[in-house]
Amino acid sequence: MIVYRLDVDRFEYELMESGAAPHEEYSKKHGSVSNAVVMLVTVERGDTDAIADQAINDIIGFMSKVKEPRLLICPFTLSMDPAGPKEAIALMDRMRNAVPDGMQVERVPYGWIARVSMSIKGHKDAQCLLTYAAAREPAHPGPILGPKTEQRHEHGHKPR
User: Fold this and answer.
1) Which CATH fold topology does 2-21+30-136+148-154 show?
2) Other residues' Cβ atoms within 10 Å of the Cβ of residue 156
3) Is 83 in contact with 43 (CB distance < 8 Å)?
4) Beta strands in the chain (DSSP E)
5) Global pTM?
6) I want to staple 119 with a disulfide (CB 3.0 to 4.6 A). Which of 9, 78, 112, 151 is the partner?
7) How far, in Å, CA of 76 to CA of 110, rounded?
8) Which of 56, 6, 62 is nearest to 34 (CA)?
9) Where are the domains of the chain?
């Protein structure tokens, strides 16, 4: 999973045309949020519930840190190996449903080409590219590194 996390003053979108088959039907063609965190999300082939849980928990933690009570989850293609629509929608819905009461959350429908306008806040953590992947078996024999665990990496920051 790839998440481009944005802390925004304003984010507006207008659904222009369907870009994928199938796409989600949606009556609301425009939307906007102010003073919010935006997740531009690519669900990749092989992503799991555990990966989605880690991603949304990181975002919820960030929202608490910057005191932003609103979240917009927006499908966005950032990968050469995206998951199919059914899998992508299921994991984005899982993340939306994990947001605790007291925080507002909206999800942009899957499969649309959208016109976007935004104003990103001006602080050092306002933009961050996050990648999440399940640990994989080595392609060749090598030393045993321990049990499989979920891995997370923030681009531009050293792994912790």
Assistant:
1) D-tyrosyl-trna(Tyr) Deacylase; Chain: A; (3.50.80)
2) 9
3) yes
4) 2-18, 30-42, 70-75, 104-107, 112-120, 127-134, 150-154
5) 0.81
6) 9
7) 9
8) 6
9) 2-21+30-136+148-154
User: Which tens digit of pLDDT belongs to each residue from 26-72?
Assistant: 777 899 999 999 999 999 999 999 999 999 999 999 999 999 999 99
In the beta sheet, which residues pair with residue 112? 18
What pLDDT is stored for residue 145 in this prediction? 45
How far is residue 85 from each of residues 96, 133, 150, measured CA to CA in Å? Answer: 16, 19, 23
Measured CA to CA, the distance from residue 12 to residue 119 in angstroms comes to: 9
Instruction: Identify the burial level of 105 via C-beta atoms within 10 angstroms of its C-beta, where 0-12 means exposed, 13-18 middle and 19 or more buried.
Output: buried
Closest CA to 111 of 132, 79, 86, 91: 86
Query: What integer pLDDT is reported at residue 56 of this predicted model?
Result: 97
